[in-house]
Structure formats: C-alpha cells, structure tokens
Q: What sequence folds into this?
C-alpha cells in the first residue's frame, strides 16, 4: 500500500526544466494521499516528466527501498504501489546485482530485461505503477489484473496527471460532473472504470495499461513523436489453459490445494507482521488452514459489530464464536475488536474518540460523522453501506490498544464468492436468467442480451428513471446510456454456462470496481495493505473452467472448495451458510441519519421530484451522492 502520482507536461521554455508550479502541484498530490503511505516520500524530475511516491514500508524497510527508483542502466524510472508476490522467483531468473530487497527493484529490472508486456505475464500480484522510459520519452501506466489497486488520471490534451486516488487530481479538473459517470452511479451504486466522476478524469481499467508521449510542441499527446493516450488490455484470462483443470474430482481437489498453497504463501512474505481477518466463514478459514500448513501462525482478529452495523443479528449469532473456535483448533492467537455506533454527541472533534478503559479495542463514533468520513475518503460516490463498517474496522486495527502496534498487512477472504461460486443468486442461475430475459422482452426490466439483463435486473434505478434524474440539469440530453452488455463473457467463452457467464460478469464489474475499491480505500485510509489469496490470477484463471457442479449444486455453493478442506476444517465452519454484511439502512435513515437526510436532500444537482418518496437503498444512494457532491464541490 503506497501512493503514486505524476505529471507529464511541457517543461518551462526558458530553462527546459520542470517549472516550480509543477513541483508544488506534485508535492500536493502526494500530500493528499499521505494516509496511504506514512513512511516517507520521494520525487523524480526529468524534463517533461515529474513522478512522486509515498511509501508504506513492508519489504526492505531501509532507505534502499525508497522510490522513485531508477534502473541500473538509467533508462527506466518507476513509482510503484502494491506487491509483486512472486518477486523472489523472478529475482532468481534475472542476472542482476540488486541494491535492495524490494519487489519494486525486481519489477523494474525485469521490465528493463524482458520488456513491460513479458514482465506482466510473469508477475503475480496486485499493483498499479508508472514507468518512465527516458530513451523513448514515453510514460507507461499499468494496473493489475483484477483491479486490487486503483489508478486514476486526468488528460486535457495539454497536460496529463495521474494518481492512486482521484482526490489527488483535484487541482486539475474543475469539479464538473461527467453525466455518464452519474448515470452509472445511479444504476450500480459505484462508478466503473474507465469512467470517473469528473470531466477530464478517467480510471485505468483492471488488467489494462496506458502509453503516452509528450509531443514536443507544448501539448501532451500531439506533435512529432506524440500520440493520444493509448489504452490496451494486457490480461486475457480466456487464454488460460483449460486442460490444467483436471479430469477427476481428486485431481481438481489436489490442484486447488496446490494453487491456494502458493497464493497464501506468497502473501505472507513481508518484513512486518502479517495478520488475518478471520470471519468464521469458509474463505478466511481456508486461508488460516493454509497458513498453519506452512507452519506460519499469523495473529487473527474478528470484529464484533453491534446492531447499528449489522442489522438485527444477535451478537451470539455473529462470526465471533465460530472464528474463536477455529482459531483455537488451529492454534492461532485470536483477538476480538468491538465496534459500536453511537448517536452524535456535542464536542467531538473527529470520528474517533479514545477507547473506554474497560474495552480498549472499542471504538465509538456517530453515524453522521462516519458518513462524513466515508465521503471524504471515497472520492467518488459509493453507495455500498458496508464501506462504513470497513472504515470502522480499519480504524480499529490502526489504533488498537495503547502500546500495541497496529497492523500494516492484513490477509482477507475477498474474492472467494466470485471465484468459487458463493453468492445465493448463483443458485438455479439458468432458470433465473431465462425469466429475466423474458421480463426484459416484455418491458418489465431493462436489458439487451443475457449479460445486460444479468446486470440491469439488479440496478438501483432503471434507465428511464436515470434519465429523469438529469432532465432539469445542464447535463440534460448529454446522458449516454450505460451498455452493461459490453462485458459479453459469451464472446470469450462461447460454450460458457449461465453460471460461468454470471461469475465472469461479477468479477469484471462489481468485484473489480466495487468490492476491491471499497477494501483498498478503507484500509488505505489508515495505511494498511490488504492481501486476498483468492484473487491470485493463477487461482482465478484455473477456477473459471471448473464444471458447474464443482461450484454450485442446488443450494450448496463452493462445492469444490469445501471438499478440498474438509479434513482441516470443522463441519460447523465448512457448511455454515454465507452471512452477508446486512447493514440496517432503513433504520439508519429513519434514526441517526434522519437529520442528515432532511438537510442534504433534495440534492440540487438532480431533479427534485425524482428524489421524493424514496426509501431504503435508493434513498441511501441519493444521500451519499448529495453529501459527496457537497464535500467535493461537484457541479455541472
């Protein structure tokens, strides 16, 4: 978890050097991302390019690991966020004398020797980085396969800027909303790449890279030797080898365990302690079992929310008893962090207060303050209410008990549902999709084609409603319909089943743009790096070809995953029903957030009459948008 930033624009004509205003702007971009990277910062300037880096030290904590970092031959300079998890294996393949023990240097020298594309195919991990080629005067931006690390950029034809978080680009755009992004938000509750909230800004999609040169005539991307930003896809999971899946159940069990062993083992590599979020469910339990098999016993923790966060669940029915029993069975140290949402209190200076002496890990915070915190950290409107719980969790991990260090690296079970079939809506998916297509044909649902119906049947607001939200704004008539059918997994897998297509869609859209964004921003707000073994591309590429009966059979889900670990894990964990994070939105909106609703709505950026009589998730999405727009001075 680091932060990166950069500016590509013409150098000062009188000196040929980077202007002082550019240096100031770059320094501010890194400062705006300080929460991600509290362990140091560095800068690099070379004519038209300026690069900045904020560091969260995890590998080689010495100054040798500082960035920006330049290759031995002087041609390549990199700023890097994330982890190359198989860097030790790649290092052995390179005939080089390394100056540090970092994965960044391995990646840098690999790009110099093998080229960028070949290096990317060999590298495993989560990353977003910028690579400057001093010889060709070319900037290359790269984002990891599944979108675990964010990367946003601004381009207006004269200057180009990029950063880990969109908030760092506030000095470049004018705060004007992109109507296509607003349309996507009203549909999905988040804004998928390449869209970004503000005009002139974009997000690099997962598994893509961008190339750009300065044209030499004062305009980025134009003139002799220049070009517009060229975005291309570098990860093609459909090209994975289907024959490696295995013909028999025994072979598939063995292969799954082998790939998970590698995925977990590589994510335990760090020069700081690594902890594990143990939820009491099967995904984190599998990770815990793999840690123990490798004779590594990380500190585990579970969060106990009160009913302000998890609906009407009784505490005794929470994850805590299951997680505690599993930790004891595996011989892991276990800690319970208790979080409690309270009503607003006069005199509080911030969202977090000192923990009570009798409950040193207990964090008390008002719902209204936590909402303000959320729209400050999530620099695009984001309507997943579980982001509040994620921020609360990250804050608790960061503070913990006085005298005890917080965590820098956390393993989690993200991706297990999308990779091995864990969601309830995967049950009888073929029949459900047939019904939805019929409903779309009758005009009862939006959707053109199987993939569009799958996504659009779950949107917050239908297409006609979204258009009406903008009809009284200056953006009226500019709305471009979102085409969710463009995912088209059937085009990559002509023989794919309805289940395989649905899982492909979930990995491409809500996982890459929603879940991973939520986790990265929440943990990054407190300088914590999350690592998700189930998102290892070698696991994902292999699992995408599994037969349906290995994933979902009737109402049983994650069939193969449970079978593979039935000897290590107790039945009460293996066969426990999935528990989502059921935030009590309706109770929030009518209770502790009722004043916030009355104050923020109707939002002047949207048609007033469309905001009346909304409830539940729809009202929550409008409240988040209104508070976010005010926080970031958004306008049409």
A:
């Amino acid at each position: 978890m680091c932060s990166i930033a950069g500016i590509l624009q013409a150098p000062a004509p009188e000196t040929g050097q980077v202007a002082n205003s550019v240096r100031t702007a770059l320094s501010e971009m890194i400062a705006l991302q300080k929460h991600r990277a509290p362990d140091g910062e560095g800068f690099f300037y070379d004519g038209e390019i300026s690069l900045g880096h904020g560091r969260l030290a995890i590998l080689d904590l010495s100054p040798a690991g500082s960035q920006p970092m330049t290759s031995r031959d002087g041609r390549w300079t990199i700023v890097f966020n994330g982890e190359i998890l198989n860097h030790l294996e790649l290092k052995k393949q390179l005939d080089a004398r390394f100056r540090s023990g970092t994965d960044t240097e391995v990646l840098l020298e690999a790009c110099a020797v093998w080229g960028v594309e070949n290096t990317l195919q060999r590298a495993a991990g989560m990353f977003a980085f910028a690579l400057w080629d001093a010889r060709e005067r070319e900037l290359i931006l790269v984002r990891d396969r599944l979108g675990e690390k964010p990367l946003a950029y601004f381009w207006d034809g004269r200057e180009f800027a990029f950063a880990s978080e969109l908030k760092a680009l506030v000095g470049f755009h004018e705060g004007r909303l992109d109507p296509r992004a607003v349309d996507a938000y009203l549909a999905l509750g988040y804004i998928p790449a390449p869209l970004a909230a503000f005009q002139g800004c974009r997000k690099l999609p997962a598994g893509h890279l961008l190339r750009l040169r300065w044209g030499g005539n004062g305009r980025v991307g134009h003139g002799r030797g220049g070009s517009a930003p060229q975005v291309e896809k570098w990860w093609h999971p459909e090209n994975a080898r289907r024959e490696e899946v295995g013909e028999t159940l025994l072979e598939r069990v063995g292969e799954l365990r082998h790939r998970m062993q590698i995925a977990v083992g590589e994510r335990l590599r760090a020069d700081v302690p690594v902890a594990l979020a143990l939820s009491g469910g099967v995904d984190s339990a599998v990770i815990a079992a793999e840690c123990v098999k490798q004779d590594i016993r990380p500190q585990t923790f579970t969060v106990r929310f009160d009913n302000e966060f998890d609906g009407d669940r009784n505490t005794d029915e929470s994850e805590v008893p299951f997680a505690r029993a599993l930790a004891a069975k595996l011989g892991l140290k276990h800690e319970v962090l208790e979080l409690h949402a309270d009503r607003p209190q006069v005199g509080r200076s911030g969202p977090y207060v000192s923990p009570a002496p009798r409950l040193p890990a207990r964090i008390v915070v008002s719902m209204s303050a936590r909402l303000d915190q959320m729209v400050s950290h999530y620099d695009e409107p984001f309507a997943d209410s579980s982001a509040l719980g994620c921020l609360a969790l990250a804050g608790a991990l960061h503070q913990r008990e006085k005298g005890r260090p917080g965590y820098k690296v956390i393993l989690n079970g993200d991706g297990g549902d999308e990779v091995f079939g864990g969601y309830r809506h995967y049950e009888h998916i073929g029949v459900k999709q047939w019904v939805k297509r019929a409903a779309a044909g009758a005009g009862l649902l939006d959707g053109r084609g199987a993939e569009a119906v799958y996504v659009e049947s779950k949107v917050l607001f239908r297409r006609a409603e979204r258009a009406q939200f903008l009809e009284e704004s200056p953006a009226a008539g500019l709305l471009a319909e979102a085409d969710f059918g463009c995912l088209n997994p059937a085009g990559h897998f002509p023989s794919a089943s309805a289940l395989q297509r649905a899982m492909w869609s979930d990995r491409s859209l809500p996982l890459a743009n929603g879940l991973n964004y939520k986790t990265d921003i929440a943990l990054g707000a407190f300088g914590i790096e999350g690592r998700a073994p189930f998102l290892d591309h070698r696991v994902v590429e292999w699992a995408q070809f599994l037969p349906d009966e290995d994933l979902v059979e009737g109402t049983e889900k994650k069939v193969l995953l449970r079978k593979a670990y039935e000897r290590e894990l107790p039945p009460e964990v293996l066969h426990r029903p999935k528990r989502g994070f059921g935030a009590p939105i309706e109770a929030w909106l009518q209770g502790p957030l009722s004043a916030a609703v009355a104050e923020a709505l109707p939002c002047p950026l949207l048609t007033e009459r469309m905001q009346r009589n909304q409830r539940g998730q729809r009202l929550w999405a409008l409240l988040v948008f209104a508070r976010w727009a005010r926080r970031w001075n958004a306008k049409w």
Remarks:
- The first strand starts at residue 3 and ends at 8.
- The CA atoms of residues 146 and 276 lie 21 Å apart.
- The first helix runs from residue 20 to 31.
- The chain has 22 helices and 20 strands.
